[in-house]
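User: I'm writing a tutorial on reading structure tokens. Could you give me a worked example: one chain, its sequence, then its tokens, then a sentence or two explaining what the tokens reveal?
Assistant: Sure. Here is the example chain.
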Amino acid sequence: MDHRIRIVGLGPGPVEQLTLAAWEYLTRAEILVLRTERHPCVAEILARRPPTAHTQSCDDLYAQHAAFADVYAAIVTRVMALAQSHTEVVYAVPGHPCVGEMTTPALQQCAAAAGIAVEIVAGLSFIEPSFAAVGVDPMDGGQVIDAMMVAQQHHPMVDVNLPLLLAQVYARWLASDVKLTLLNAYPDDHAVTIVQAAGASQQQLTTLPLAELDHGEHFDHLTSVYVPPLPPHSSFTALQELVAHLRAPEGCPWDREQTLLSLRKDLLDECAELLEAIDAETDGSDHRAAICEEAGDVLLSVVMMTQIATEEGRFQMGDVVRGVVTKLIRRHPHVFGDAAVDGVEHVLANWEMIKTQEKAEQGVTRGPLDGVAPALPALEKARKLQSKAAKAGLLDRAALAQADPALAALLGATPDEARFGALLWQIVALAHAHDVDAEDALRTYTVQFRQGLA
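And here are its predicted structure tokens:
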């Protein structure tokens, strides 16, 4: 005989929100399994069922298992056992069976393997009444994410310029974890709204600063949190849209004329200005506004270059981000794998080893001095070349530092950053007195040093 499981959505609130089909199945089913009796319409459904009908709740399984995954697996096992011994089983879940319901796909998979048909009987999800409660049309770009997913992140993987609804914030500890993640992208005084029992007669809204999200006892299985967007132009995608607009036919003539080559100097200049803003804080003053602005200019340069590459069909921002994220995960096996490290030096050694392996897989043999960008400022380029040459046994940095005793003596008995700066300052003046550009001179010497080892 044919067997069937009907997964019926109870909706988020009272029986008035049930579909007619759902009401018929729930009240007339010979076998009814409730994922939970903790739902506003269950009492009335049970009152309308025939006395001989079998009804079973799965609330006992929540008490038997500590992890939700184990609870859901036990529920699926229970429903499947009933379905194999009865022609039809109705399994009722809160909301819509296909929205935030982990048991639905698991049941579908098990039933398919057992040759049992599964029918979905739709129900109103929590999404529509929750957005309606806060006066937001989800078609305006609403995002809906399980709070558990956000709680496990260190930065919320959302667009901060779009409305955000966090579902199933069922406990205060979960709200606390969610808050810590959100604070990495939203200010602590950002007003959020706790939505309880959306669409039901006992619906309640509580608006408070994000920093106080976990300060109350507002949380149960019918709780969501609404996070409104940040002010316009606050997201990375907003910057991408703006740059693409500037490059479009109706955009800016100057921006449309730029190429990867023409933006090289701009990128170097913006990086230098960012470093200058950071250096300005050495006196203990607060230059956060300047650093923020200059960091934005560096980011603009990268987004502009990527937009140009996108238009040329070379790569897109997704390729850039995916590449660097994949690389960082691969080069941090002590964080994302099972490798063990003993301090920073071990981390750096692993990093270099992994880089060498990557190049080998690409058919590239890395030399001991590879990986030093030609466009680096001369001082930084010299530092990196010396470091790599010393690691490869091609240079004794200690001996080099004492190669000219008179020069070393200029630093005094206790050399510090200020003395080194003064000495370099004097060397630049000496070069200028002899019509030599100190930057070019050092850059040329680094090239000669590298060629001498080739």
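What the tokens reveal: The chain has five domains: 4-125, 128-227, 236-322, 331-365, 378-454. The chain has a mean pLDDT of 91.
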